[in-house]
Every structure is written in C-alpha cells, then in structure tokens.
# Entry
Amino acid sequence: MIQKDLHQLAANTIRFLAADAVQKANSGHPGMPMGMADVAVTLWTQFLKHNPADPHWPNRDRFILSGGHGSMLLYSLLHLSGYDLSLDDIKQFRQWGSLTPGHPESHLTPGVEMTTGPLGQGLSSAVGLAAAEQWLGAQFNRPDFALVDHTTYVFAGDGDMQEGVSHEACALAGHWGLGKLIVFYDDNGIQIDGSTKLAFTEDVRARFAAYGWQTQAVDGHDPTAVAAAIRTALANTDQPSLIACKTTIGYGSPNKAGTHSAHGEPLGVDEIRLAKEALGWPAETQFLVPEEAAAFLNGRSRGAQIQAEWENLLACYAETYPELAQQFKAAMAGELPAGWEAALPQFEPGSKLATRAASGKVLAGIVPVVPQLLGGSADLTGSNKTDVKGYAALQRGHFAGRYIHYGVREHGMGAIMNGLALHGGVIPYGGTFLVFSDYMRGAIRLAALMEQRVVYVFTHDSIGLGEDGPTHQPIEHLMSLRAIPNVWVFRPADANETAVAWQMALERTDGPTALALTRQNLPSLEPALADNARFGAYAIGAAADDVAAILATGSEVEIALQAQAALAAEGIRARVISMPCWELFAQQPAEYQQTVLPGSITARVSIEAGMTRGWQEHLRGGIAIGLDHFGASAPYQTLYREFGLTADAVVTAVKQQL
# Structure
C-alpha cells in the first residue's frame, strides 16, 4: 500500500540531500538522484530485504547503483534507512577522508555492495551476483529450506546500456534465465553531451527481450505503477527483468530538469531554491531530514526481523543438514577447507609440461576439495585447460554445475566474476589468452580496487604461442597488468611454480591474481626449489662469490639456466633469479630481497619475452633482453632465435658488464 504523502516526503528528502550535497561540494551529479528518487523509495520501503544494522548478512537482497555518478542517491538511502552513515558524512560528500566519495566504494562505505562508476560494470557484475545466488541455492537449498533466496536489484542508465560490457553480460543473464535479477532502467533520455538521440536510438526493451528478458515500461514518478512492475518481475522466476522507468533527470528543477546541465554539475544556489519552492520544500534549509521521512525509510526494525527469521531457518537447517550448514558458513566466510593444499600436485623434476597444462592438472586436484571454486573460459576451454573432467557445466535448469561457458565475452566474464566474488561463497576463476586481457582490463582494475579474490588464467603468454602471430602474441600485457595496483601477476617458470601460484591465489583474500601460462612445454624444477615462488622471487644456484645475476620469469627461466651453465664453463659465477611475481617479492622484508639480489652484484641481465620497460627497477643499470616490438608468425623456436631471446644473448650481456 502506497502512503503517498510519506512517499513524496521521503522522495523529496532524497532529492534535496543530493542537491545540497553536490552544491556544497561544488562537484557531482544531482540529476539522476532527483529523477530516480520515486523508484528508489518504492523499492527500499516495500521490497528490499536488508538489515542496516548488519550490512553483510548472507541472505540480504543486493542493490547495485550501476550509474555510480549518482552516488548521492545511494548515500541518502543508506543514511535514511539506518546504515552507519551520518548526516555529517553526507555533508562531507567528495571530501578527503569521507565515507561518501564521488563514486560508491564497496570496501569503504557500509551498505555499498559494489564499487561503481565505470559505466556498464555495475549492471554486468550484478549478473554475477544473481548467478552466485542461483548457484549457491542449487548447492545448498533443500525442500523446506530456502537458505539462499534473495534478489539482485540494479539501477542502470543510458550509459550502462551503451557500454559494450553490458551487452555481453546481459545476454548471458537471459541465456541462464536469472529470474532473481531485476534492473531498473533510468530512461531519462539525457547524457553528458545532451539528448541520447545524438548517439543512442535503439529500442532497449526490444534488445533485452531478444536476450530473453521480461521487459516492462512504467512512469518512474508513479510509485503505484513502479510497485506493480516490481511485483510482476518478482513473480517471473524464469527470466531476468528490465523495468524501463521513464523519468525526468533533475526532477523538480524549474530550469534544468530534463536537460544535460542537471546531469554532471551542481544546480546552483538559486536553482536549488526554485526547485525547493516548486516541490513545497522549505527554500532556505539545507540538508533537511524531516523525522517522518527518516522514520518511513528506516529499515532497522523490519531488517532485524527478516534477518532473525533467516537465522532461525539456518539453525534448523544445521540440525537437519549439519555438514552442509558447516560448508555454507565456511564458504560465506571465505574460508578454504582444512588441508586443501594436500591436493596440489607435485611434478617430477626434469619432466616437461606447459604451464597451462600444469594449471589444468592443479585444477583437477583442487576442484574436488575446494567446493567454492567456480571456473570458466571465454570459449577457449581446450586451450586454457580450465575445465575438470567429471563436472557438469552450469546452464539454465542445471545451475549446480562447476563450470561456466562464457562464450566469446572476455569483458563480460571479468565483470561477472567480480559479481560472483562480491556475493560471497564463490571463488571464481576464468580463462582466456593473455593478449585478450585487454578486453577485460576494466573489470580487472575494479577487482583490484574492490579487493576481491578473483583468479585469471591467462594462457599463451608470449611469442611462445608461435604461428598465430602478432595479433595473438602478448608483448606489453605483463607490464600492463603489473601496473595495476593490488593485482598479483604470476608468470611461473614450470609446473611446480604453477602449483604454488594457484595456492597463493586461493589463499589470498584481498585482491585478484593473474596467472600467465605457457603454450610450450617447460622442464620442471625441483618441487622444494619451486616452492620458493611463494616469496615472489628466489635464487637458483646462488653462491657468495656470484658476480652476476640473471633475472627471468616463466619460459625464460630455462634460457637463463642455460646461460648460467655456459658462464660457469668459462669460470663466471652467475645466479639465476626466478621472479614469478614481482608484487610478492616487493612485499618481502628487505633482508630477504638482499639475499636474493644483493646490492653487491652489479652485473645484471633480465630476460623476458615481453616489453623491457619496467625491468630497470631491478636491474639498476643492467641490460634487459626482451621485445619492445610486435612478434611474428613462425614456430616459436624460430621466433626466440630471431628476436635474440637466447642463452648466447644473455652470456654476451653478462660479459659486456663484467
């Protein structure tokens, strides 16, 4: 039942908290919060299942503000509904050290489910959130025990619809039939440059219907119509739902409503006064929160009741299914099963195996004992070695599978994996060629910013893939990924380092890990030696009287060892330093770093089949051997020889410095 007066009071409270905060900061986007306030109040007061006193309880509904520029809408909702976000926090919008940054950040502000801002990412990751809900439900729900049973709601705008990643992810949502995903499309016809008609005239509802979504259209300022549309969407459990809400951006502003000037700049003091007068709001007030509006939106009492009912359900579930209940609690806490690492394989020294194949063998060992692992590939399963025999693929009607066929959708895969991780209870991994990490860079960067445990399996990591040529041969990609803060980039030298890389990736809980793996076979090192990869870098064949250091990663460690032997035959002592993960090495104590790479060794050479820029941090004037140009199409042995990635080149570089 709509309480019209209270609804309007609450909606206007949100509108003017947003307008006042943006004006005080002299920066921000007031238009979307003012336009979507009616939809937001309807959803948050009548349908959203959440508890502001416990933002992380597992069976809450998820709310994603994909258009993160409209963050004041979310901050107003969080404050008014009872989250730990004060009015003073609202007043500090976009200021240093505040809990209300320009775009919402999930690791910072209570109640924010996802860091949004790059358009398309929130909507696309919401597909992962909804998929996680359905996947965990298939794993844990039992008759009379709907343990995992919640809805993912998204506010998305024209920018989200235009970004290509949303096409990839939303097509999969329709293919999977994610009936608990409901998207509110803020159809206001305005973007930064002006009318959306400048560049965007497609029929959005028809597009989503073609994906297999249920679609509806409503007046976004009619709460009765919005509520009816939500009920219709909730009743359809076989399709995701798009509710196109026709709204006016900057609603209530006499001179700026419906224009692009309401989108990305403050309304201005005079215009805010006029808007307040137009909507019957005290014109001279700022940050006014009427008690009735706060009481109407406050969700603590209802939230506590809903959570208590669920916790009682969980307690009964634990009595009936104690083992499953323990697994569920551990999964949602992000814990790995005790002793899981015993399933990691060890590889015979000297045996030859591509690190992508070694990764596949690692997965064959750990997937059966780590039930949270949910993997996939962007249509490169056979090349990435990411599937495990004996496990079904996840599909509509069979959502308990352990493998995802993402299709040729790298960016969508990256965003969906972020959603899987954000939901909790899932450790996602996904594969493609390293060169195609370009397609998913936006999602990788967000995973790093949100500190999410996501694992990327990037195979065909260099010119070593050979005949496919420069379009498929990564050159700048390792350095590009290393440049993203909080991403661990592992390029293991052999099968045993690959097992260590997987262990480190799964044990990490504060960010993503990228594994760069070879197509060509590499000789296996001693397991005890390769175990030192957990420190990021370690020395092979080191002695106190070493006069040179050869630094290498991945397949080039073999070349470095060949050069080491050639130098030793001439009486020149050189240590090889395998550096599979620069980021981990940088975290080690200075004493360890000095042990591996003493400052007294000034003759330094690096060899890596990628760009050389970045190596001077470790070489300090030494010589970097690599590729600062594109590759070519030929057998990989020819490419290494022709491009000078050889033991002879390393020997020459060492001698040149000595």
Observations:
- DSSP finds 26 helices and 20 strands in the chain.
- Residues 4-136+149-302 form a domain with the Rossmann fold fold (CATH 3.40.50.970).
